[in-house]
Design a protein that fits this description.
This protein is of the alpha+beta class. Helix content is 21%, strand content 25%. Bound molecules: 2-oxoglutaric acid (AKG).
Length: 255
């Protein structure tokens, strides 16, 4: 089901939208959660090989150098390693949302699982996604799907409404930045304007690639598992100015 005109309008005004209808039903959510847990379990102890701890403060991504007090765990490109997450790319309710915002010709940019474990889940600093990506035109959207209820206690998304309209902000490397860890850029954001976006399990929110956003540490007793799919209009160029033709076409045609 496509977004209603007023929802599109809200997105155009705020640069994000909480979707008020369920996107993943109970049965589907149980399957995805099981596959998600099993992938993280398989990869536990292999930091740097497909699994990253974005809260790392050591000198490298190896387990020895990782400050395990904090974990903001990331697996990129889940669709390449798991059939359920590959199928999720084509889930009609998600593509309908993307189509309402970026048009009928939709390619995957990438997906990622972002897991903040209970008690010691790490932070993600204020940033814009396109601060990392530098895609052009900057019209990508990300659908952030909650596998657990996500709220202020366990690290839901916080956003600055309307921030995308000001274009790309100046990003700096955070102090804990080591190597090319992508989650460690940060922007000075006006936190007084921040809005929390709690999302229940099976629901989603969508944000523009220039929307300033952040998530807090998870000190609660509840895990916060999320899955994010980043969509781009076909014809989008990478940071080197090349059209990204070899990324999966999810709906419509290649530009
Ligand atoms: O899930 C998180 O903690 C951060 C999400 C994020 O930065 C994103 O979806 O772009």
């Amino acid at each position: 089901m496509k977004l209603m005109p007023q929802e599109v309008e809200e997105f155009r005004r705020d640069g994000y939208l909480k979707i008020d209808r369920r996107i993943i039903d109970d049965e589907h959510l149980a399957v995805l959660s099981e596959h998600y847990d099993s992938l993280f379990a398989q990869k536990r102890g292999t930091i740097g090989e497909g699994l990253r701890n974005l809260a790392v403060v050591g000198d490298s991504e190896s387990d020895e150098d990782t400050d395990c007090a904090e974990e903001m765990l990331q697996i990129m490109e889940m669709w390449r390693v798991d059939e359920e997450f590959r199928k999720l790319l084509y889930h009609e309710p998600l593509l309908d949302i993307a189509e309402s915002l970026i048009g009928a010709d939709i390619q995957l940019f990438h997906d990622q699982a972002l897991y903040k474990p209970a008690y010691h889940g790490g932070e993600v600093y204020w940033h814009q996604d396109n601060g990392y990506w530098r895609c052009n035109p900057p019209n990508l959207v990300s659908i952030w799907i909650a596998l657990d209820d996500a709220d202020e206690e366990n690290g839901c998304m916080n956003v600055i409404p309307g921030s995308y309209l000001a274009g790309l902000a100046a990003h700096e490397r955070a102090e804990s930045e080591k190597g090319d860890l992508p989650a460690l850029l940060q922007v000075d954001a006006d936190v007084n304007r921040a809005v929390s976006v709690p999302v229940e399990a099976g629901y989603a929110m969508v944000h523009h690639c220039l929307t300033l956003h952040q998530t807090n540490p998870n000190r609660s007793s509840r895990d916060r598992r999320a899955m994010v799919i980043h969509y781009m209009p076909s014809g989008t160029r990478n940071r080197d100015g090349e059209v990204m033709t070899d990324y999966p076409l999810l709906r419509g045609k290649l530009a």
